Each structure stands twice: as structure tokens, then as C-alpha cells.
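Hi support team,

I've been running sequence recovery on a batch of backbones for a student project. Most finish fine, but this one hangs at about 90% for roughly twenty minutes before it completes. I'm not sure whether the input is malformed or the queue is just slow. I've pasted the C-alpha cells below so you can try to reproduce it. Let me know if you need the job ID as well.

Thanks,
M.K.
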């Protein structure tokens, strides 16, 4: 029995896949055609998963004219239908991923990139357990300049950031009630919400799940939900890396551990320091950071966030329970030892992001890499290797890095490089206002 049989209220269906920028690309389908979609999938050009941020073809892409702009077969993922509670009529989305005519996965699909990394863990009898922390701003973009939205309760605007303020959360209580109800309906495991360091900035944590593909699906769907729901409440929601010059940017952090075939956490032992495998995974993450920065900071605005003293890491370092480091090992129970990867902005593609993090950690484990000593104190005040500070440097590092090609296949690396070079060339021509308009509720 189809999910739709239990939901007769659904009038229409969306089907879509994530492109390299995490944008949903797909179709709207009347309900009466849904059975065919479930059984046979749909078709559209493979080049659609390799568009730039404006939704334009990549000028020199071999996926376009060189190949005749050939179709791929888009098939439903194991996720199945997901309600879309932010739309005005009852609707559902059927997430897809792309294949060639012969049934082989399309290497340019970011979901397949993550699936390939997960398969490598599985082959070793290992299972990543993954959670994400999703930061976003609620914004009034009705005027010439963006501002924090008025409180629906008082009609006033928040005067400051109000970190971990219950009052700030309560001011938008109806929005958060609707958000949690929608997450329940969509199968997104939303946990704690907090008020963050920027005006109108919040964070929602998604629970740990022993399924990295589901964690990425959840993050991708959550971003769609928050943006759509905010508009229903008369606001914009932005995961843009740095919407305000004077306030902290949006991050997308992940916490992960790894279980062995017996369900034991391989990062844990009976010490505070954790296992040798934990340090190998940390070493892999640190080694991969320079060349994977393009995944963690994929847009022109992303590099506005990566500045010292703005609650985003800028150095390649790790530490125990220290939020100035790019890799943090949180405190708590020794059995719960895990890695928090803190570099990525809220504007990332969740599939590529988790593939990069988990892939580099696995390389550290496989190669038995040795981590440097953990730092203490502020990472901003120490002479440490720095992350690429410009988009151009990140593109170059991704191009020449050996780890990027161990994690991602050649076609995806090539497609992403072409995409980002095209975007960078066009981005230079935009005014600051046009840059803000481009990214505000797109990424």
C-alpha cells in the first residue's frame, strides 16, 4: 500500500533531488500520476543536478551539449513520501536520486557521494552515528535593509542577541510550535531549540541517528521547511553563512561517533582522552580541511563568516570542549565520546558536507594518521595553520588535493569545480545588495 493511500487529503506531489548546491530540482505531479512515479521514477537531464546557484547551465559542462544533454532516471530514495506542511494545500515530496539508463548511479549526484562513503564504513563493519545543529536567522526583509523581525507578541524588535534567551524563543512561540509539529509530520527528529548569538538567530538540533543518509535528508528537508514556514509567518528564514556584517554567521555543525559491528562506540574507552581511533579520525578531519574548505564554505558569502573572533573557527586545530577549535571533542560520559566538526556554514549542501566529514575521518582511520596535540585556550590567539580565507584559494585547494579525490569521484569533483568557478566569476559583478538578495533565502 502506498503512503498516499493513507493520506487521501494530499492533492499533489513534488518529486525532487538535491543538486550540487543543495537546491531541490524536480517536478510537480498530480496525484493521479503518483503510482507511476513510485514504480518507474521520472526523467530529466543529468545536467540539472549541476546548475549554478542562479539555476543556469554550467557553460563548459560536458553534461550539456557535449553529451546531448542526456536524461537520467530519477528514482525514489528509501525515504519515501514526506509531507510539506508549509504549503497552502496538502502536498508531499518524494525525494529522488539519479541513475543512468543501465541502473548505475550517476556520479554527479551528491546523495550518491554520501552513500559511497557510508558503504566504505559498512565494508569495515562500522556505522557512523550522526547529528546536525542547524543555525538560521529569522529576518524581516520587507524593507530596503534586512532587520530582525518584530516579536509577534509585543510588536517590538529584539534589541540584542539574547544568547540562550527563553524570552526570545517565547516571542516566536507560534512559529516554533508549528515548526516542531511539521518536523514530527515529516519524520525529522528535531530536538532542542535555542536563541543564538545574532539578532533573530536560532539553532535547532537534530538528534543522532545511525544513518548518515537520513541525517543528510533531514537537514536538507529541514532547510526547506524552515524557509517555507517562515514565509507563512511573515518573515524570511536564512541559512546564509553571513547575512549581517556585525553579527555571527550561521553554522551547520555535525556531531558524530562510529559504532562497530557489536554496537560499541569505537571512539570511546574508559579515559577522558578517548581511543586511538578517535584521534586517527580527528587527524583525518584536520588533514582534509584545507582541500575540503570548498565543501564547508561553498559560496562567495561563506568567507565573510570565517573571520577571527566571530564564533566560527578559522584555524585547523582540535581541542577538548573548546568552541574556538575547528574540531571539538565535547565533554560528558566517556562512553559518548564523539567529534564535533565546526567549520561548515549553514549554506552547505548537507550530502556533500557529511560525505566530506565522514570521508576524511575514515581516511584518518584507514591510514592510521596521528593527530597533533590538542590546543588549549583561544585558537584565535595562536599561530596555527589557517583555513583558506578566500573562495579562489578554496577552489584551488579542492582541485589539487588528494583527499578530495579519495572521497569524491572524478566527475563530481570536476562538476563542482566548474560550477564554483562560474559562480565566482559572476559573483564579482554583483553589488552587496545583489549578493544578499542572491543568498538570503536560497541556500
Amino acid at each position: 500500500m502506498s503512503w498516499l493511500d493513507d493520506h487521501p487529503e494530499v492533492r499533489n506531489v513534488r518529486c525532487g533531488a538535491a543538486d550540487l548546491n543543495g537546491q531541490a530540482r524536480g517536478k510537480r505531479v498530480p496525484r493521479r500520476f503518483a503510482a507511476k512515479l513510485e514504480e518507474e521514477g521520472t526523467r530529466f537531464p543529468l545536467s540539472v543536478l549541476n546548475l549554478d546557484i542562479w539555476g543556469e547551465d554550467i557553460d563548459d559542462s560536458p553534461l550539456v551539449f557535449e553529451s546531448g544533454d542526456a536524461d537520467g532516471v530519477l528514482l525514489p530514495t528509501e525515504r519515501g513520501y514526506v509531507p510539506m506542511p508549509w504549503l497552502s494545500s496538502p502536498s508531499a515530496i518524494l525525494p529522488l536520486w539519479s541513475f543512468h539508463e543501465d541502473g548505475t548511479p550517476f556520479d554527479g549526484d551528491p546523495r550518491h557521494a554520501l552513500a559511497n562513503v557510508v558503504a566504505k564504513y559498512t565494508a569495515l563493519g562500522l556505522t557512523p552515528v550522526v547529528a546536525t545543529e542547524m543555525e538560521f536567522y529569522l529576518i524581516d526583509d520587507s524593507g530596503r535593509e534586512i532587520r530582525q523581525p518584530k516579536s509577534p507578541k509585543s510588536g517590538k524588535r529584539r534589541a540584542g542577541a539574547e544568547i540562550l534567551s527563553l524570552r526570545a524563543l517565547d516571542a516566536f512561540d507560534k512559529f516554533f510550535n508549528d515548526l516542531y509539529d511539521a518536523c514530527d509530520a515529516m519524520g525529522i527528529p528535531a530536538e532542542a531549540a535555542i536563541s543564538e548569538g545574532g539578532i533573530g538567530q536560532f539553532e535547532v538540533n537534530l538528534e543522532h541517528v545511525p544513518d548518515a543518509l537520513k541525517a543528510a535528508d533531514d537537514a536538507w528537508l529541514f532547510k526547506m521547511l524552515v524557509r517555507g514556514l517562515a514565509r507563512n509567518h511573515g518573515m524570511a528564514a536564512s541559512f546564509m553563512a553571513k547575512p549581517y556584517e556585525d553579527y555571527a554567521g550561521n553554522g551547520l555543525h555535525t556531531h558524530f561517533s562510529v559504532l562497530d559491528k557489536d554496537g560499541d562506540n569505537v571512539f570511546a574507552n574508559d579515559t577522558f582522552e578517548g581511543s586511538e581511533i578517535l584521534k586517527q579520525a580527528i587527524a583525518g578531519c584536520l588533514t582534509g580541511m584545507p582541500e575540503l574548505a570548498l565543501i564547508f564554505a561553498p559560496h562567495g558569502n561563506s568567507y565573510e563568516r570565517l573571520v577571527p573572533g566571530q564564533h566560527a573557527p578559522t584555524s585547523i586545530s582540535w581541542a577538548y570542549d573548546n568552541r574556538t577549535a575547528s574540531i571539538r571533542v565535547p565533554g560528558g560520559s566517556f562512553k559518548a565520546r564523539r567529534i564535533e566538526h565546526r567549520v561548515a556554514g549553514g549554506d552547505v549542501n548537507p550530502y556533500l558536507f557529511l560525505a566530506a566529514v565522514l570521508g576524511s575521518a575514515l581516511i584518518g582511520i584507514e591510514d592510521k594518521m596521528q593527530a597533533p596535540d590538542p590546543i588549549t585556550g583561544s585558537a584565535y590567539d595562536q599561530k596555527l595553520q589557517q583555513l583558506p580565507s578566500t573562495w579562489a584559494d578554496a577552489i584551488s585547494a579542492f582541485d589539487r588535493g588528494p583527499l578530495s579525490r579519495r572521497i569524491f569521484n572524478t566527475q563530481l569533483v570536476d562538476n563542482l569545480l566548474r560550477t564554483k568557478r562560474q559562480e565566482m566569476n559572476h559573483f564579482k559583478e554583483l553589488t552587496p545588495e545583489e549578493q544578499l538578495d542572491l543568498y538570503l533565502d536560497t541556500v
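--
Follow-up from support: It reproduced on our side and the slowdown came from queue contention, not your input. The chain has a mean pLDDT of 95. No action needed from you.
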